[in-house]
TrEMBL record:
Taxonomic path: Bacteria, Pseudomonadati, Pseudomonadota, Alphaproteobacteria, Acetobacterales
Tagged with keyword Acyltransferase: no
Pfam families: HTH_1, LysR_substrate
InterPro entries (alphabetical): BudR_PBP2, LysR_HTH_N, LysR_subst-bd, WH-like_DNA-bd_sf, WH_DNA-bd_sf
Assigned protein family: Belongs to the LysR transcriptional regulatory family.
SUPFAM superfamilies cross-referenced by the UniProt entry: Periplasmic binding protein-like II, Winged helix' DNA-binding domain
GO CC annotations on file: protein-DNA complex
The protein's name in its UniProt record: LysR family transcriptional regulator
Native source organism of the sequence: Muricoccus nepalensis
Superkingdom of the source species: Bacteria
Length: 307
């Protein structure tokens, strides 16, 4: 493999056409430069420079090497800077996952968009999946971080940070007696006789358990008619008239025809969080930058109404 010092010495000498001037440009003495040039010719097994009475000139092989040397040295310079930028978290790859319902909250696409705009040299790859799949992917290193709804219990090797929480709404079939958007916030107890459609527990135990606990606090145990594999799918079942559901406020952005929403009276613990899941320790520079950006964006968010 050609030594880059020899390659640079040759290129400068060929460009200057004079060994003494090349040595001055390189900031070195002439004898070491001459040794570098001879060593390169010996390594390649061919003469690269014609020695003239008043300087040097590249041979045919030397002219070819000049073009290649410019490209190689330019690439080496770029490579050095790319590596430094990667060490600062400004280049490379960052893989971020999210659940479908987390992505519906404007915070998540907003922070991703601003992060990508701030670091255009960093390739950000996105993946949508359920909470369990995302947690496993972070643990195995396939993802650097993930936004999830469900709280993740104590898992060795994982750090879980609460980013925000938002109110829950009642999602009702259009035409339901309680579906009037003009009414005051609905007491949770008013839903005691309804068939509930919930996000499947094994996919999102946090929200599932939160809803059940809030209903019990309101004095009833909900009758669960259906479980959906994803939070957005619950709204399709509500629109079909199969029951009602409790969903994060941001899900009304889906604007599914046949679904009406009602605000709920405050109920202990009834809120929909978004968490950021990362590996504990050993984070790359880009992941550290992303965590910092998420924390800053969460801190800058206005307080929820009524807070």
């Amino acid at each position: 493999m050609i030594d880059l010092r020899r390659l640079r010495a040759f290129l400068v000498t060929a460009e200057e056409g004079h060994v003494t001037r090349a040595a001055e440009r390189l900031g070195m003495q002439q004898p070491p430069l001459t040794r570098l040039l001879r060593g390169l010719e010996e390594e390649l097994g061919t003469q690269l420079l014609h020695r003239l009475p008043r300087g040097v000139a590249p041979t045919d092989a030397g002219r070819v090497l000049m073009e290649e040397a410019r490209a190689v040295l330019a690439r080496a310079t770029t490579l050095e800077e790319t590596v430094r930028r990667a060490a600062r978290g400004e280049a490379g790859r960052l893989a971020i996952g999210f659940t479908s319902s987390a992505a519906l909250h404007p915070f998540v696409p907003g922070v991703l968009r601003r992060f990508r705009e701030a670091l255009p040299g960093l390739r950000v790859e996105l993946d949508e999946a359920g909470t369990a799949e995302l947690v496993e992917a972070v643990l195995l290193g396939r993802l650097d971080a993930a936004f999830v709804r469900s709280p993740v219990g104590s898992v060795a090797g994982l750090a879980v940070e609460r980013v925000l929480e938002e109110p829950m709404l009642a999602a009702l079939p259009a035409g339901h007696p309680l579906a009037s958007a003009e009414g005051p916030p609905l007491p949770l107890a008013a839903l005691a006789g309804e068939a509930f459609i919930l996000y499947r527990r094994r996919a999102g135990p946090g929200l599932y358990d939160t809803i059940l606990a809030a209903c019990r606090e309101a004095g009833f145990t909900p009758a669960i008619a259906q479980e959906a594999p994803r939070l957005p799918a619950t709204l399709s079942l509500v629109a079909a008239g199969l029951g009602i559901s409790l969903v994060p406020e941001s899900m009304r952005r889906l604007a599914i025809e046949g679904v009406a929403y009602r605000l709920l009276e405050p109920s202990p613990g009834l809120a929909a969080p978004i968490h950021l899941v990362l590996r504990r320790g050993g984070l790359g520079a880009a992941a550290v930058r992303f965590r910092t950006a998420v924390r800053a964006a969460a801190t800058a968010r206005p307080a929820p109404s009524g807070a």
